[in-house]
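Job type: complex structure
Entries:
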Amino acid sequence: MAKLMKNDLDRIKQAHQDTGKDWIKVGMSTCGIAAGADKVYDLFVEEVKKRKLDIQIKKCGCQGMCYSEPLVEVRVKGLPEVIYGRVDKEGVMKILDKHVCANTLVKDSIYELRTKR
Amino acid sequence: MDTKIVFIKDTNTKLDTTRDFYAHFLNLLRENALEDKVQVVRIADIGIYDQGLVVKFPDENIIYANVQDKDLKDIIAQTIKEGKVIKELLFKAQPKQLRIVLRNCGEIDPENIDEYIAQDGYQALAKVVSDYKPEQVIEELKKSGLRGRGGAGFPTWLKWKLTRETPEAQKYVICNADEGDPGAYMDRGVLEGDPHSVIEGLILAGYAIGASKGYFYVRAEYPLAVERVEKALKQAYDYGFLGKNILGSNFSFDIDIRLGAGAFVCGEETALIASIEGRRGTPRPRPPYPSVKGLWDKPTAINNVETLANIGPIILKGGSWYASIGTEKSKGTKVFALTGKVKNSGLVEVPMGITLREIVFDIGGGMLSDKGIKAIQTGGPSGGVIPKEYLDTPVDYENLQKLGSIMGSGGMIVMDEDDCMVDIAKFYLGFCVDESCGKCVPCRIGGYQMLSLLNKITESQGKIEDLDKLKRIALAMQKASLCALGQTAANPVVSTIKYFEEEYRDHIVNKKCRSHKCKHLLNYNVIQDKCKRCRVCVINCPVNAISGDKEAGFFVDPKTCIRCGKCFEVCKFNAIAKE
Amino acid sequence: MIKAKINNLPVEVQEGESILDAAKKAQIKIPTLCKHPDLPAGAGCGLCIVRIKGTPKMLRACCTPLEEGMEITTHDPEIVAVRRTVLELILSNHPNDCLQCGRNNNCELQTLVADFGIREESFQKFLPDVAKDDSTRTIVLDAQKCIRCGRCVKVCQEMQNVWALSFLERGFCTRISPAGDIKLADSPCIRCGQCSNHCPTGAIVEQDETARVWELLQNQDKYCVVQIAPAVRVAIGEAFGYPIGTNLTKKLYALLRRLGFKAVFDTNFGADVTIMEEGSEFIQRFLHGKGTLPLITSCCPGWVDFMEKFHPDMVDHFSSCKSPHEIVGVLSKTYYANKKNIDPKNIAVVSIMPCTAKKNEIIRCEEMYASGCQDVDVALTTRELARMIKQAGIDFVNLPDEDPDHLLGDYTGAGVIFGATGGVMEAALRTAYFLLNGKNMQKVELNQIRGLEGVKVAEIPINGKKIRVAVAHGLNHVEYVLDKVREAEKNGEEMPYHFIEVMACLGGCVGGGGQPYGVTDELRTKRAAGIYQDDQGSKLRCSHENPFVQQLYKEFLGKPLGEKSEHLLHTHYQARPVYAK
C-alpha cells in the first residue's frame, strides 16, 4: 500500500473515532489465553453469528487483572461498560443472554477495577 | 425515569448487622417502590479494598465507601431519588494506578495498527520527523528524567546522547525484550497488548541517535509476543512508519526481530549483542560500553521494552509533563508484575514514589490468605527481600537499593508467614546458578557453592560457620563477577541474611523451619489425645515409619520418616502434628 | 599519554593501556589466571579486580583501560580477601592431582595458590565427571583440570581461526570441548598445540612420549638417531634458567649423546635440503611455468592440516617438499643406513620439535614411510626433552660443547632461520637468487620479512625480475593472503605474490605449541634473535653451499626434483573433511 504522510495519520484517527457501536472485547494476551480466553472468544464469535446479533467481537491485550482472566469487557448501549472476569462458556452465554439481549448486567461476575480509565 | 444501575461490593466486609446487605438493599428499594427502577448488581471486584461496603453509581461515577446499614436510607432518598451526592460517604482516594506504558493495553486490538493510530499512535513519530532535530528528542527526554526500566535505571537521554555522539556512520538500536525474571511479565504484557507503542519508541530512538537499523531481541518463550510484534512490524512497514523516507521525511529506518534461545544472561546487554551476532551468549567486559562499541562493534543503544513504550507519550505531552510524575530522582511510572500471596496478581502501573503498602493493599487487594505479610521480593533474582517493616517506603530506584534490593525490571512477589526465607533465597539463587553463563569464576563456582551450602542448611546439615562462608562467597560474587547477573545473584541471600538471620540460625542450630517449608526439618508426630487409632496413617505411610498398637498408641519413627506429609494429609482427626 | 596513580605511585602510559599492564610498569603484579599477553582480555577469572577511587565497584584490571587521573588501589585487605575467596572457589572445582600433573611446578594456578598461602580447603570439592580426550595422540584434553579461563578457546578461535575448541553447556557445567561434544581427533583440530601452550593449568598438555623414547634408548637392537629442530635450541634453555633466546645447539648435541643416541643430527640439515628442493620447485614454477604460482610453503604440519581442511583449493599451490625433519628421518633410514651399513628397520629416529603437530605429521600419509618403514619414529616437544634431561640426571648447564654427527648434522645459516617466521622464505630466496643469478646475494639478510607483523609482504629484485612474496604466521592472518590470491585468480589478474610462506604459530616455530610455557611477543622476538644470531655467525649462509648437502646429491639423490628426490623427499596433499564424521 501507499506509504502514509502526516495528514494520513489524522485521517485514520478520524475514521476510527468511537461510533458508539456495541462491542465485546476479549483479553487475548498470554495470561488470558492460558485461562481459556481463546475458547471464550471463539464461542462469542460463533454465538453472535448464530444469533445474528449486531455486536462486534474484538480482541485486546492484558488489562492487568491477570488473576481474573479470562476478562471480557462489554459495551452495550444503555448499560455501563463493565468488565466480566473469569468468564467461561457458561459466562459467555449469560453475557449474551442477559447483558446483550436482555439489557441487564450479569451479577457477581463483574470486575470493575477503578484503575480502568 | 430509566433503570438506574447500582454496583455494590459486599463480600469480605463486616456488616454492622448480620443481615444480608444485598437483600436488605433490595427490601428497602421495594419499600420505596423502586425495585423496577433500580438494578442492583453485586460485583466481584470493585478495586477498592478495606473500605467496607462499597456502593457505586457507574453512570454518574459516584462511589460511596464504608457504607453503613443506616446510610442506605439516605442513599436511596438522596442519590437515587434526587440525584444528589452525599459528600460524607464519598470515597475520596485518588486512583493509585497511572497508565502511561500500559495506556493501550486491554483497550485496543494489538493486531490492528489503526486502533493504535486512533489513540494518537505514531503522532510522536510524525511530530519528530517533521519538527524535531535528533538533539531535541534527547533534550525532551532529558527533561522527562526517564531512566532505563530494565533494572539499573541509567538515564535514557544520556545513553542516547553518548551513542549519538560516538562518531561512526553506522549505528544500531536494540529493544531488549529478553524478559526473564521469574514471576515478571511486564514486557510481555506490553508487547502482546500494544506492540506498536514499543515499535514507535524504537523508531524514535533510532531517529534520536542516528541509527538506520533496529533489532527486537525477544525471547523465544514469548511466541505470542513475537507473533504480534512481527505482525505489527509488517503493518508499520505497510504504512511507511518503517523503511525508506518515513512519513515523507529523509529519515529511513528498518527493524528486524531476533529470538533469544532461552538464556537469562542474554538480557545482559553485551551477552545480548553476542547472541545477535551469532556467538555464545556470554557477557564481555565493559568498557567499552555498547554506546561506543556495540553490535558488530558499532555504537548501539539498547533499551528495555518499558522504556521505549514511554517515549511516545513523552514526545507528545512533553518532558516536563513526565517529570511532574514520580519522585525527585525517579520520574514517571513503573509497571510491576504483582504476584505471590496477594489477592489480585497482575500487572500494575504506578507512579514512582508510591509505597509498597499501597501497591500490595490498595491495588493488590491485600493478602490472599489470613497469614500476615512477611516480606516483598523485588527485582527478581537480582533483587532482595524487603521485610514488612519497610512497607511504607516510597518505591524508587534509590530507596529500594538502600533496602538491599533493587527496582529491577519490575517483578514484585508478596510473601506471607508460610514462606521460608532460606527457601526463597535458595529458589532465587538456584535460578541464577542455572542461568549463569559459566564465564567467570565467582558466579560459576561461587553461586554453585552457595547453593550447596543453602541445600545443606535446609536439609538439616547446616553448620554455624556456613553463614560466614555464605557471606564470604557473596562478597566475592558481588565484587568480582563480570556482569550484573553474577554481581547481584547473591542479593537474595544477602538480603535474607540481613533481615532474617534468625531464621537461618533456626535452620542451622535448632534444625527448625518455622514456615514448615523445608521438609527435611519437619517432624511428624501423632498427637495421642486426638488420635482415634484408626490406622489410616499407618496404612498410607509409604515407608512404614508409623508403628504401634491400639493400646500404646502410634508413633512416627523420625529416622525412617521421609517427610512426605502423607500421614498429615490422610488423618481425618488432625491428629498428626507437623513441626 | 595517560597520567594516573596506582597505589599512590604516579604512572604514565599510552592511551588504551589496561590497568593490569600499567601496574606492571610500576612494578606491581596483579594476579590473573585468564589474561594472557597474546590474547584480548576475557575477564573470566575475576582475580585481577582493583579498586578505583570514586566507584563503589571493584573493576577488572585486565580489561579496564587506565584513564586520566584515576587513583587505583591494587591491594588492600578486602581486595586480597575477595581474590583469596575466588582462588579457593577455583580450587574447589579443581582436582588435587598436582604431584602427578603434567604441569607440576610449572602451573599458574599452583603458583598463585602457593603465593596466597592457601593451606586448607574451605569449600566442598565438586569435580566434573569428564573423561580425558587423548584421541589426537598429540594433545591431551583433561577437562577436569580446566579452570574455564577461556584462553584455549580464544587461541583456537581467534588466534588460529581453527574453531576446534569451544565452551559447551553453561553455568557450573561449562566445559571446554569441540563443538557437538565430539572427540578432538574428529574435530577441525590441527594439532598446533597453541592451546596447550597457553593453558594456565594441566588441562591441555602435549601427549607425553618420553617413555617410548626411553624404551627405544634402552633397546640394544635399536640404533637410535636424533635430530633437533631450529627453534628448540633457542628455547630449551628457559627450562634451565638461561636468558631467553640463548643458543644451546652444541650443548644439546652433547646432551643427546649422553642420553644414549648413537647419532646426533640436526633438522637444520634437512632444512638445507628442503631449500634445494623447494627452491628448485620455485624456479620451475616461476621461470619455466611448470606448476601453479604462487608457491606456498608446506614445512609446517599445522598449516598443512589447516589448508587441507579449510583451503583445499590451495592444494596445487603447495610445495610438495616434505618438512625438514621428515627429510632427515627418511635420509637416516636410507642414505645414512646405507653408508653405515645398518638395517633401516633397526634405526629409530627421534625428532625434538617445538611442535605438537609433528607428532601427527610422522604418520599423516604413506609418503611418511618412504624409507620402507616409518621415517620418524617419535616426535618429542621441547617441553618433553626438558623433562628427559631432568630425569636423566644430567647437569645440562655445565655440559661441554660438542659437534653434530656428519652426513645429516651440519647446517648453514639458511637452515637455522627456518625456526622464525619468514625464515623459510629468506632461506629459499637466498638459494633462488643463486639459481637465477649464478652467484650469492651480496646481503643475505631480508629484514623486510623478519619480525612479528602478522602479514609481511616484500618485493625482491632478482636478475631484473621482481619476486613478490608474502609471509603469514598465526593462522588468523592467512585468509587475508589467500583471499588476495583467490581474487586475482577470479579476476584473471596477475598473481599478487609468487611465493607465500605460512607458519601456523605466531612467530613461527620459535612460538610453537611444544615450546616452553609463557610465550609472549617479547619472548618470540628474543628466541628469534637467538636464531638470527646463529645465522649471522655461520660461515655458510646459503643452503646450496652446505658441503654435506652437495655430497648428498652427488652420492645419493642425484639432483633436486630428480627421481630419487621425488620419491624420498616429496609428498602429496588432498582435501580433508573439517569434521571427521
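Summary: Chain B touches chain A through 63 residues (CB under 8 Å). The CA atoms of residues 345 and 388 of chain B lie 18 Å apart.
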